[in-house]
């Protein structure tokens, strides 16, 4: 019925969050020459071989599937940067602000569609290490919020930095005992 909502149904699924994250802008290196694309979300291009261009993640994935580009992983996906963020997360009660809102979804999409574009100059295990670091950061953040919620008695709480995937977790609604807005 219109106007009524079931809070279990109003939570975003992982797939829906990935769909939303696909609008994030990412760098690609095209291997074709093409005029700019005029899309509803904006103009992207021109595409010139070996010249970095910014496009939405969904377009980068579509071009990559057709062999028209390689995807440049975001700087925050480097082993060094993720290690630094993980150390900050473990050492501080606050959440690090060095990762984008959709970091879980972006990394999952890149692992699914551009795994071989995640380079490491020294060894072939970089994608495994990057994925492990992202999972560790997510776990540390979940633990921080769970710990904070255990002692929570008030009506409001300010959360500065959190990811979209965290907001979709079913237990979050159960712990707070409220329906999402």
Summarize the structure.
The chain is mostly helical and 181 residues long.
What does this protein look like?
It is a single chain. The protein is mostly helical and 181 residues long. It has one domain (7-176): Ribosomal Protein L9, domain 1 (3-Layer(aba) Sandwich). It has helices spanning 7-10, 14-21, 57-65, 79-91, 103-113, 126-150, 164-167, 170-176, and strands at residues 25-30, 37-39, 42-44, 53-56, 69-72. It has a three-stranded antiparallel beta sheet. Helix 4 (79-91) packs parallel to helix 6 (126-150) and helix 5 (103-113) runs antiparallel to helix 6. The radius of gyration is 19 Å and the shape is elongated. Residues 76-147 form the GINS subunit domain.
Measured between the Cα atoms of the first and last residue, the distance is 17 Å
The H-and-E topology, N to C, reads as: HHEEEEHEHHHHH
Largest sheet: 3 strands, antiparallel
CATH T-level topology: Ribosomal Protein L9, domain 1
The overall strand count is 5
Global Rg? 19 Å
Q: Would you identify the regions where 5 or more consecutive residues have pLDDT less than 50? A: 1-7, 170-181
Helix content: 40-55%
Tertiary shape: elongated
CATH class: Alpha Beta
Strand content: 5-15%
CATH architecture: 3-Layer(aba) Sandwich
Average residue pLDDT: 80
| Biggest sheet, spatial arrangement of strands | 4-1-5
The count of domains is 1
- The number of helices is 8
- Alpha-beta classification: mainly alpha
Subcellular location: Nucleus
Keywords: DNA replication, Nucleus
Pfam family, one: Sld5
Protein name: DNA replication complex GINS protein PSF2
